[in-house]
Amino acid sequence: MKNLNKSYAQTKVLTDVSFAINEGTTTSIIGSNGSGKSTLLRTLLRLIEPDSGEIHFLDRDITKIKKKELRKVRSQVGFVFQKHNLVPKLSVLSNVMHGKLSEKKGPRYWYESLAPKQCREEAMESLRAVGLEDFAKRKTTDISGGQSQRVAIARALMQKPKIIFADEPVASLDPKNGEKIMELFYNLAKEKNITLIFVSHNVDHALNYSDRVIALNRGVINIDKDSKSCTKDAIGCIYE
Ligand SMILES: Nc1ncnc2c1ncn2[C@@H]1O[C@H](COP(=O)(O)OP(=O)(O)OP(=O)(O)O)[C@@H](O)[C@H]1O
Ligand SMILES: [Mg+2]
Question: Are strands 26-30 and 195-199 parallel, antiparallel or unpaired?
Answer without folding.
Answer: parallel
